[in-house]
Write a structure and sequence with these properties.
Structural class: alpha/beta
Low-confidence stretches: none
Oligomer: single chain
Mean pLDDT: 94
Largest sheet: 8 strands, mixed
Shape: globular
Strand content: 15-25%
Number of helices: 18
Distance between the termini: 18 Å
Length: 568
């Protein structure tokens, strides 16, 4: 064992060998509003919990602050993931966590050992009901917490994902938000009608053929077309394939696939709300749509909907694989690049194989873009990726700003547009500057019911696709962990500020106000106070830690090690 007492203390911490305190410290949230955050505005002490036979006592090593935490503060018990009286049972937020097992219940001692390390898939379900970590279950804004059977044996199995002993705490804690980013690039869409599902064929159907759809096997087809020849073709196929035919729509049912035959914008608008979760709307156009179509962009994002189309007579031609990875050597526009999630998309574009040749990063404010330029310009240059930074407030005329973005696409349009700004205008702008076969990743979640008028002709005529995903799965989180541990994605580069547990309140307010372009990370178990500290000011607070930042001022595992040496 080392004779250096600081190194000895750090070693004890990593192995979970330090003496356990009699008290636990945490931040309670008693309801909606900032006035209900904390006990008299701060953290509170409670007796240290002890695990039951089938439970674990875990230490929260690092936790990222998410804007979803702000949503709970604003909504309180009206938040869809809160199912209790917060006055009687306050919530402890914080779901982007890195954990270490401290005490193992007697029935779990063959499966777990003190010192085992994990991250958590926060979306935990029991009998289909959400018991999310940091919502219904006590989260990371506490020194210690109990992990019970709901986490260890939920609907999807064990929601704890093991990580290596040598992993950094912040880098794996940030796997949770990063998994949501990565999931938007790895999502897979169907390339045929849902097997065993329901299909609604609606419109005129003139001169249309089933094409490859003759080999697909839905359970039922609702036939609602005016062309008698096409209707006869469908009935013959269905009889041979053993597919049920229903004559006419009932006006109520939702469908896994809806095929709109003919260029009727009003019919498209009538069909869109009838899509089931995970459904595909297929536009088979014999001529261009006469106007824009009002689309529920919130449902497209949250309900995993897809709009495809073709201007051929083969209705199956629309169901080609949807490219979700960035186009290698292409042109990529990241809209809203200066926020925490925008920076993640930008970092991913520069870090993963198959990089675009050019990235245009835009944001509303020059002051927010300045640190992004500082962090990423050199990295992009070293990788041979051309990068352009544009701010809306530097170009007063909206039309001129849009023209500048078109010019920066080399006059060819963007192969990929990633939309971080949660506005209908952002989605509409994205559609104006895309190349053929472009992918528009609507990553920002607008509320269900938010209508955007979109020109859907490029979907049918030019192969443009809109994608949207929400959250992540256990598999997504494991994949993200693997990318971090293989050094493919440096999640530490997302960190903009750090704090000890006492900085939770200030950190949450900073995130609510959009003060930082990157993530705020809390280290709950520091033994010395550390208020909310931007990395740009770290040299004045902890110069020995600041000396371990990288050449671009980004957080590193070496800086974290030094922080723990100094503050433990």
């Amino acid at each position: 064992m080392t004779s250096d007492p600081i190194e000895s203390k750090l070693g004890q911490y990593r192995k979970s060998e330090e003496p356990l305190s009699a008290t636990n410290r945490l931040w309670p949230l008693y309801g909606a509003g900032w006035e209900n955050l904390g006990k008299e505005g701060g953290a509170m002490d409670l007796p240290m919990p002890h695990p039951g036979p089938d439970e674990l006592l875990v230490r929260q090593d690092a936790v990222g602050i998410c804007f979803s935490d702000i949503k709970v503060i604003r909504a309180g018990e009206k938040h869809p993931r809160i199912h209790r009286s917060m006055k009687e049972q306050p919530v402890v937020l914080g779901h982007e966590v890195a954990l270490t097992v401290v005490v193992v219940g007697e029935n779990l001692q063959e499966q777990y050992q003190p010192g085992d390390r994990f991250i958590v898939q926060a979306d935990i379900y029991i009998g289909g009901k959400a018991y999310a970590y940091g919502y219904e279950l006590q989260g990371g804004f506490s020194k210690y917490s109990i992990v019970d059977w709901r986490v260890l044996n939920g609907d999807h199995g064990n929601y704890l994902i093991p990580v290596k002993p040598e992993d950094g705490y912040a880098e794996v804690a940030l796997c949770e938000p990063w998994a949501c980013v990565e999931a938007s690039y790895t999502v897979v869409y169907r390339t045929q009608w849902q097997e065993g599902g329901g299909v609604w064929l609606v419109g005129d159907g003139h001169d249309v053929s089933l094409g490859a759809a003759v080999d697909w096997r839905p359970a039922k087809v609702v036939l609602d077309v005016t062309d008698s020849a096409f209707a006869a073709q469908v009935r013959t196929w269905a009889a041979d394939a053993g597919v049920e035919i229903q004559e006419g729509d009932d006006g109520v049912a939702r469908y896994d696939d809806i095929v709109v035959l003919g260029a009727d914008a009003a019919l498209c608008e009538r069909a869109f709300p009838r899509m089931a979760n995970g459904a595909i709307l297929n536009l088979v156009l014999d001529r261009p749509l006469e106007r824009a179509v009002a689309v529920d962009i919130g449902r497209m994002h949250y309900d995993h909907l897809l709009v495809v189309g073709t201007d051929t007579q083969d209705l199956a031609a629309s169901y080609t694989p949807v490219r979700t990875q960035l186009k290698a050597g292409g042109r990529c526009w990241i809209l809203g690049a200066a926020g925490p999630m925008g920076q993640m998309h930008l970092l991913r574009a520069l870090s993963m194989p198959g990089k675009p040749a050019k990235v245009v990063a835009t944001n509303l404010h020059t002051v927010r873009m300045k640190p992004v330029r500082k962090q990423f310009a050199r990295q992009a240059a070293e990788l041979g990726v051309e990068i352009v930074f544009l701010s809306r407030d530097a170009i007063t005329d909206e039309e001129a700003f849009l023209q500048q973005k078109w010019t920066e696409s080399d006059g060819q349009g963007y192969d990929d547009v990633v939309v971080m700004a949660p506005t209908t205008e952002a989605v509409q702008q994205a559609a104006l500057v895309v190349a053929d076969n472009a992918v528009i990743n609507v990553f920002a979640g607008l509320a269900r019911g938010t209508l955007v008028e979109l020109d859907l002709n490029p979907v049918a005529q030019r192969g443009v696709r809109y994608t949207g995903t929400s959250g992540s799965s256990i598999e997504d989180l494991r994949h993200m962990r693997d990318l971090v541990e293989s050094k493919q994605l440096p999640t530490n580069h997302s960190v903009a500020a750090i704090a000890g547990l006492e900085g939770v309140g200030d950190g949450l307010r900073a995130v609510a106000e959009g003060q930082f372009a990157g993530k705020v990370v809390i280290y709950p178990n520091l033994n010395r106070p550390l208020p909310l500290t931007p990395l740009t000011q770290l040299e004045t607070v902890l110069p020995q830690v600041a000396a371990k930042l990288d050449a671009d001022g980004m957080w590193t595992r070496a800086a974290e090690d030094e922080l723990l040496r100094v503050m433990l």
